[in-house]
Design brief:
mainly alpha, 3 helices
């Protein structure tokens, strides 16, 4: 299995775990999700920039990877 496919599968899983942990912390009164969402809302442009940087770096990495040998 290639690294790319393993990473693609684990990222959504990690995101779901983090979201679940945040909701659990909110239910246990360890965290105020409303306050957290207000802070994230103020920083949403940084999130867009980070996504763009990740896309560009993935694109460059794909172009610099040597071609795979043909299979027969």
């Amino acid at each position: 299995m290639s690294t790319r496919s393993r990473t693609g599968v684990s990222v959504p899983g990690i995101i779901l775990i983090v979201i679940g942990a945040l909701f659990l912390a909110n239910s246990l009164d360890l965290l105020d999700i409303g306050d957290l969402l207000r802070r994230v809302w103020r920083l949403w442009p940084i999130i867009l920039i980070a996504i763009g940087v990740k896309m560009v770096s993935d694109s460059r990495r794909a172009r610099t990877r040597p071609p795979e040998p043909p299979t027969s």
